[in-house]
Amino acid sequence: MISLAAYFLLMIGIGVYAWRKSTESSEGYILGGRDLSPSVTALSAGASDMSGWLLLGLPGALFVSGLSQSWIGIGLTLGALLNWIIVAPRLREQTEFYDNSLTIPGFLGNRFPSNARLLRMVSAVIIVVFFAVYTASGLVGGGKLFASAFGGDYMTGVLLTLGIVLVYTVIGGFLAVSLTDFVQGIIMMLALIIMPIVILTTGQGNGVGQAVDRLTAIDADFFSMAKGMTLLGWISAMAWGLGYFGQPHIIVRFMAIRSVRDVPTARNIGMGWMVISLLGAVGVGVFGRAYAERNGMTVSDPETIFIILSDLLFHPLVTGFLYAALLAAIMSTVSSQLLVSSSSLTEDIYHTLLKRGASERELVNVGRLTVLGVGLVSAVIAANPEAKVLGLVANAWAGFGAAFGPLVVLALTWKRMTGAGAVAGLIVGAVTVGLWIWLGLNQSLLGGEGLYEIVPGFVASWIAIVLVSLATPDRGEYRARPSA
């Protein structure tokens, strides 16, 4: 508990520091003044991306089924790399060039002025609705950690997690979120390096060779990447990487980096952090299973293996640090999602549609109030610990990826794209994902295995943008970039 208390105080301290540095203007509150260093940009993007999935979901899946579950991680790694190469430098340059856009909806409106109001309204609504549920999933993780690790009340854990996040996010805005993400990213990576090493060096007969022999004896295909894998299953797993192009809470980091010249450095740091962290998560799941088998442990919920081993193998002070790593994974994503939702409500609804003459101070205060509002709505959604919110995370990832992914990539790279094409892609992508889920095609396709909804959604959105853009007049909305 001492380690957790110190962690909470550190997060709040960072919020106060950021309040003194970057909350005098809406650009400062929403994007940290576009002055993030490469290291902060990289780890902030990574930490806000991975969430509790990295320490709970992925190790749990590997614990049960073996290395075949690592394809999602491979798909995400490739998607993240392409995101840094294709989107990051262009988005940093163009969002500033197109009237200093502070949000993704704002950039789309400035890039396609003929459909600006519709684009900003529809995209802002999609962002707020999806992120309310997305944020709720993180609060569920905080509640379950509090209940399982400390024997406390689930809802108390939800409110405690939300309360700490709200304090530093409301006070310090984007800079606070990014700096806390940087610290949280380091904590997460260290925890994922330490845990597999300790598992393999604790007790007798638990080295790498012994672990492999033990698990192979239980399941000859445990280390097979093809175990239980079909073509549709492989496509669905790898397609998770497509989602990166359209995740507002991740790509907004690209808008805030200090300069385009810093992007390659940030990319190298970010990809290094991601690969190390994913390998650590694989180690926790695989070697955690070997440890459980060797010691005759019954693990009723495989997704809690990180929590169980933290309690069994470490001194209480270190256990507190590992719990802090799990909270870091949860809180880094929750804070990012709350701020992006707030930014869209403030800039794309309040400032654009309701009060164009609002002062900078007023916009900052509205932003703080909307962070609080979205957070409370998410807490209501998270009130039921049995709700299948984590399943909705996959749906939200697909929704964002299909609605915004092709839209962002083509808006940055294709001069002939029109505002009508942008609207078509946004709507077609979101609707396709929704229908695919509603019809159950992500569970069963033609009586067989389902296909992850991001695949048809992404493809349909891309086609809609291209066809509608070619069928509508080019209004000359593309402006040559400064370096073009």
UniProtKB/TrEMBL annotation:
Membrane topology category: Multi-pass membrane protein
Subcellular locations according to the entry: Cell inner membrane; Cell membrane
Top-level taxon of origin: Bacteria
Catalytic activity: L-proline(in) + Na(+)(in) = L-proline(out) + Na(+)(out)
Main location: membrane
Keywords of this entry: Amino-acid transport, Cell inner membrane, Cell membrane, Ion transport, Membrane, Sodium, Sodium transport, Symport, Transmembrane, Transmembrane helix, Transport
PROSITE patterns for the chain: NA_SOLUT_SYMP_1, NA_SOLUT_SYMP_2, NA_SOLUT_SYMP_3
InterPro entries: Na/Glc_symporter_sf, Na/Pro_symporter, Na/solute_symporter, Na/solute_symporter_CS, Sodium:Solute_Symporter
Pfam families in UniProt: SSF
Transmembrane intervals: 60-86, 118-137, 157-179, 186-205, 231-252, 273-292, 312-334, 363-383, 389-412, 419-439, 451-471
Family: Belongs to the sodium:solute symporter (SSF) (TC 2.A.21) family.
NCBIfam families according to UniProt: Na_Pro_sym (TIGR02121), sss (TIGR00813)
Entry function: Catalyzes the sodium-dependent uptake of extracellular L-proline.
Name of the protein in question: Sodium/proline symporter
Taxonomic source organism: Paracoccus fontiphilus
Gene behind the chain: putP
